[in-house]
Amino acid sequence: PMDIHYDHDYALPVVPVSVSLEKDLKILQNTPKRILKKPLLLKHRKRLLSKFSLIPQADFTWNRSENKKKPGNKRTLTIEDEILLMCMKLRLDLAIQDLAFRFSISNSQCSSKLTTWITYFGNELKPLLLWPTKEANLLYKARYFSEKLHNVEGIIDCTEQKIQKPSNAKAQYQTFSTYKSCNTLKKLVVTTKTGSFSFISKAYGGQASDRHITEDCNVINMFSEGSVCLADKGFNIQDLLLKKKVVLVCPPFKKKGLHFTRTKVLSAKEIARSRVHVERSIRRFKEFKICKNELSLTMLDLIDYIYIICGAL
Question: Where are the alpha helices (DSSP H) in 103-184?
Answer without folding.
Answer: 107-125, 134-139, 169-175
